[in-house]
Design goal:
single chain, about 270 residues, mainly alpha, Multidrug-efflux Transporter Regulator, Chain: A, Domain 2, 3 domains, about 60% helix, DNA binding, DNA-binding
Length: about 270
C-alpha cells in the first residue's frame, strides 16, 4: 500500500474526487506557514499558478497548490532567492552553481558569527574591550583610555596590515616613558616637554624602522590621503592635550633634523 494511505482514517472522511474541499488564500497560507500577501506575491511573479475560482469569484486552492507553496518555502528557507527558484528546480549546472554560491555565503556567515561570538566572549570577560577594534581585545586593560579612543578612530582609516602592525607595536610591555607621556599635564614646563621629546624620538625612529607600514599614513590607509590625515589630526587634537601635541611636534622636528643631518653627511665629499 502506498505510504500515507495506510492511516486509520475515521469512517466517512475519505472523500470522492468530485467532493474535494477547496481552501481560501488565508487557509492555504496558514497550512504552508506563510501569509496571504506572500501567496499573492508568488502569483504575481509566476511561481504559483492561479487556482480555479468558485461561482462566487473566490479562489479555490487544492493540495497541488499547497505542495508547490511548501516547495517554494523550503527553497527560500535555505536562502534561495525567489528569482532563482525556477533555476534551482531545473537541476541543471546553473542550479548547482547557485547552490554552491549559497553554500559559500553561508560558510562566510558562519565564520562571521563565530568572530562575533569570540568578540562577545571578550566583552563578557572584560567590559573595557567593548569598544576595542577586533583583535585588540586583549590589550584593553593595558592601554590608557586615550590610546583606546585613538585606536577606534584609526580603525576607520588603516589597512588590515597597518592595524596588525599597530597591534604588534602595542603588544609589548608599557614603558615608564610611555606612562609619563600619557600622564603629562597640560601645564607641563618646557624643559619636561623637551626632555620627553628627546627621549621619545629614538623610540619613534625604531618603531618606524620595525613597522614601516605605519611610517607613511598615506600608504597605511585604505582611504584617500587627505581623508586619512584629517581623521588622524582630528583624533590627536581631540584626545591629547596641548602639552601632548607640543611634545609630538618636537619629536617630529627632532626626527626631521636628524634625517637632514644624515643626508648632508652622506652627501659630503669623502
Amino acid at each position: 500500500m502506498p505510504q500515507g494511505q495506510g492511516f486509520q482514517w475515521p469512517p466517512g472522511t475519505i472523500p470522492e474526487r468530485g467532493l474535494l474541499v477547496a481552501w481560501s488564500t488565508r487557509q492555504l497560507a496558514e497550512l504552508a506557514g506563510t501569509t496571504p500577501k506572500a501567496v499573492r506575491h508568488y502569483h504575481e511573479i509566476g511561481l504559483l499558478d492561479e487556482p480555479e475560482r468558485a461561482s462566487n469569484g473566490y479562489k479555490r486552492y487544492g493540495v497541488s497548490h499547497l505542495v508547490r507553496l511548501l516547495r517554494i518555502r523550503r527553497l527560500t528557507d535555505l536562502g534561495v532567492a525567489l528569482a532563482d527558484v525556477p533555476a534551482v528546480e531545473s537541476g541543471d549546472e546553473r542550479a548547482r552553481q547557485i547552490l554552491r554560491d549559497l553554500d559559500a555565503e553561508l560558510a562566510a556567515d558562519i565564520e562571521r558569527r563565530r568572530r562575533m561570538r569570540r568578540d562577545l566572549a571578550a566583552v563578557i570577560d572584560n567590559r573595557a574591550a567593548l569598544d576595542m577594534p577586533p583583535d585588540f581585545k586583549t590589550l584593553a586593560d593595558d592601554l590608557p583610555e586615550t590610546q583606546r579612543s585613538l585606536l577606534i578612530a584609526y580603525s576607520s582609516i588603516l589597512t588590515p596590515e597597518a592595524m596588525a602592525a599597530l597591534r604588534e607595536q602595542l603588544s609589548g610591555p608599557r614603558t615608564d616613558l610611555e606612562a609619563e607621556f600619557a600622564a603629562l599635564d597640560e601645564d607641563a614646563p618646557d624643559d619636561v616637554r623637551q626632555r620627553l621629546a628627546e627621549q621619545m624620538a629614538p623610540e619613534v625612529r625604531r618603531q618606524h624602522r620595525d613597522h614601516p607600514d605605519l611610517a607613511d599614513l598615506g600608504l597605511a590607509s585604505h582611504r584617500e590621503r587627505a581623508v586619512a590625515e584629517s581623521v588622524a589630526v582630528q583624533a590627536l587634537a581631540e584626545f591629547y592635550n596641548r602639552a601632548h601635541l607640543d611634545v609630538l611636534r618636537r619629536v617630529h622636528s627632532i626626527l626631521v633634523e636628524n634625517d637632514t643631518a644624515e643626508s648632508e653627511s652622506d652627501d659630503a665629499p669623502q
